[in-house]
Specification:
heterodimer; A: MetI-like fold; B: mainly alpha; MetI-like fold; 12 helices; 0% strand
């Protein structure tokens, strides 16, 4: 390989990567530095470095909206949703995978084929169903809805994963007199850990960041998730960019913390979620 | 005999809870939506009438709905091409590097962590504050555009923000695909004197075709389901000119008219479109698997 061509390639590749890096980082960088500026500073220049790193805008946001309550609501919805779908999904995926026969096959097919129903197709009637079950307006109800909406994908991946686990382990346990529940919770569930971690991470990010379902389900400001609160704050303070941007930054901080803590698993989970299964 | 009954009992104990929530939140809404699409229900009234295909016929004459469909098609097409093209390019460039791999990967993936709607608000700041400021400099005067208020321009604004948000995810999958290409094959090609371009065309790309197919369909589905970016950036406006089909359905049902029957007919049309795409998708995947 000619070294000239190699050097030219490396130069071009660095330039492309650098330009793209600026493009990808710019909105976040802009949001962060302008969140420290006064109205006047933003008005005179958005590119300039802030004159001081005061937290006035952040304090203002804290006084206007109850971010901590919204954070708690987001946590409630996410935990109920993710734990619920993993537990129900693992149980059903395991049994469906281990049970031969027409009924089992049909139920699995039902879950599988429902995966091509886009959310927007069912959202109208879904909100009616939620209303008649009195789930509308409750964070617990919203969490349960995420369980129902994501189970097909969760069951699909557990079903595939269980196939790779040798049956001998369960048979040996049964010989020793272990019951169904003991076998599932003590033997199978620990073996499902890799796929459980993948599913947990993907669905935590999905529920935490989801906007449309909470928008349809939650009407009381006290029940708003973090995303919804930020959305309504944006609607009310359209001109006060300093406060808006600091609210955006604060909303992004928990996900970035989550990413830093679980970076390896998140990246692995995305690749596995797409390429396996 | 008791043994089989006990097996059935355990089968249902494990499967029934999942089946129940699934039936309530997906199957019933789907079947309900289908039936309501043939009625004139307005979402509030207790009574409604069966109207046959009237809603469907109206949908195909509804200029705004047709426009939103066309908008979606155009958007989906460009998203599939650009999102995969850029993601693959970035993955290849990052994988060809020895240093700073992790840094670039993190920067490109970061926007994907942020909720779409938050990202759209950050970009609103860029479009309405930063770009006008830059456009004051003569060299950047081309940036002086009505980025979010002129429908022709805001189509591209929507595209830019969607790419900013979505490219990183696909890039992660492509990187995993590239890392799966066996080293010895690349080594063999290098010994045979293949240059960089030949390596890419004849070794790397054929080896990651499976990944490319998966990514194409992932982007196809996610682009069809785009909602938040448009909602946050333009709200579908001005005058509903930047609505995608999902936003058009949402507005029909929850904002403008509360015509649930009619909105459900539109939703079923969307479903049929996705159904056709999915059938094609499954066929193509099956064929590829046989070839591989």
């Amino acid at each position: 390989m000619s070294s000239k061509g190699n050097i030219a390639f490396r130069a071009v590749s660095v330039v492309i990567l650098a330009v793209m890096a600026v493009f990808f980082a710019l909105p976040i960088y802009m949001a962060v530095i302008n969140s420290f500026k006064t109205q006047k500073e933003i008005f005179s220049s958005v590119l300039a470095w802030p004159s001081s790193f005061g937290f006035d805008n952040y304090i203002n946001v804290f006084h206007s909206i109850d971010l901590l309550k919204s954070l708690g609501n987001s946590l409630t919805v996410t935990i109920i949703g993710v734990v619920g779908m993993l537990l129900l999904g693992a149980m059903a995926g395991y049994k469906l995978s281990r049970t031969p026969g027409k009924l089992s096959g049909f139920i699995f097919f039902l879950f599988l084929s429902s995966m091509m129903i886009p959310f927007h197709v069912i959202m109208i009637t879904l909100s009616q169903v939620a209303k008649s079950l009195h789930l509308q307006g409750s964070t617990t109800g919203l969490g349960i809805m995420y369980v129902g909406l994501s189970l097909n994908m969760v069951i699909f991946l557990y079903h595939g994963f269980v196939k790779g686990i040798p049956k001998e382990m369960e048979e040996a346990a049964r010989m020793d007199g272990a019951g169904e529940l003991y076998t599932f919770f003590r033997i199978i569930l620990p073996l499902l850990k890799p796929i459980t971690v993948t599913l947990a991470i993907l669905n935590v990010l999905y529920i935490w960041n989801d906007f449309l379902l909470p928008l349809l389900m939650l009407t009381d400001v006290n029940k708003y998730t973090l995303i919804l609160t930020t959305n309504s704050f944006f609607g009310q303070y359209t001109k006060d960019w300093g406060s808006i941007l600091s609210s955006l930054v604060m909303t992004a901080v928990p996900v970035f913390a989550f990413f830093i803590a679980f970076q390896k698993w998140i990246l692995q989970g995305i690749a596995d979620g797409a390429l396996k299964g | 005999m008791t043994r089989t009954i006990r097996q059935y009992a355990w089968f249902f104990a494990f499967v029934a809870p999942a089946l129940l929530v699934f039936l309530i939140f997906i199957v019933i809404p789907m079947l309900g939506g289908m039936s309501y699409s043939f009625t004139n229900w307005n979402g509030l009234a207790k009574s409604y009438k069966f109207v046959g295909f009237v809603n469907y016929i109206e949908a195909f004459k509804d200029k705004e709905f047709i426009r939103s469909l066309m908008f979606s098609f155009k958007y989906v097409f460009l998203m599939v091409v650009l999102q995969n093209g850029i993601a693959l390019l970035l993955a290849l460039l990052i994988e060809s590097r020895k240093r700073a791999k992790g840094l670039f990967r993190t920067i490109f993936f970061m926007p994907n962590l942020i909720s779409m709607i938050i990202g759209a608000f950050m970009w609103t700041f860029i479009f309405t504050k930063l770009l006008p400021e830059l456009a004051e400099q003569a060299a950047f005067s081309f940036l002086d555009q009505a980025w979010t208020s002129d429908p022709k321009v805001s189509f591209y604004s929507i595209l830019i923000v969607s790419l900013w948000q979505g490219v990183g995810y696909m890039m992660i999958i492509y990187i995993a695909g590239l890392q799966g290409v066996p080293q010895d094959i690349k080594e063999a090609a290098r010994i045979d004197g293949a240059n960089g371009w030949q390596m890419l065309r004849s070794v790397t790309l054929p080896m990651i075709m499976h990944t490319v197919t998966i990514c194409l369909f992932l982007t196809l589905n996610s682009a069809f389901n785009s909602f938040d970016v448009i909602f946050g950036l333009t709200g579908g406006g001005p005058a509903r000119k930047t609505e995608v089909v999902s936003l058009n359905i949402f507005q029909e049902a929850f904002n403008y008219n509360y015509r649930f029957g009619y909105a459900n007919a539109k939703a079923m049309i969307l479903f049929l479109i996705i159904l056709v795409i999915t059938i094609v998708q499954v066929r193509v995947m099956k064929r590829r698997e046989i070839e591989a």
